[in-house]
Structure prediction request, 100 residues.
Amino acid sequence: MELAVHLEVGPPQVLRVAGPLDITTAHVFAAEVSAASRGGTHPVVLDLRGVDVLGSAGVSELFMAREEHTDHGHRLRILASSGSLAAKVLDLVGLEYEPQ
Prediction:
């Protein structure tokens, strides 16, 4: 399965992500987040409810996206389905998200 990323123009801008977010797809995800948020200068909501694999490379990119947003005075909002694998990984690494 491939990573699918879809930007819903808002406000807020929502980047919906589905599929595996791991070593094979993290670079695609990072490029999409950077483009959608213009390097963190515009806030974006990351909707990870469709993510079925969240590996360490994906987690690393999430932390970098959060740092970019913070550097520009924005809060990175992350959505994850309650009890999902993505939510469990986010809990494990201490990355704040909004359970859906």
In short: The chain has three helices and five strands. The helical segments are 26-37, 56-71, 85-93. The chain has a mean pLDDT of 96.
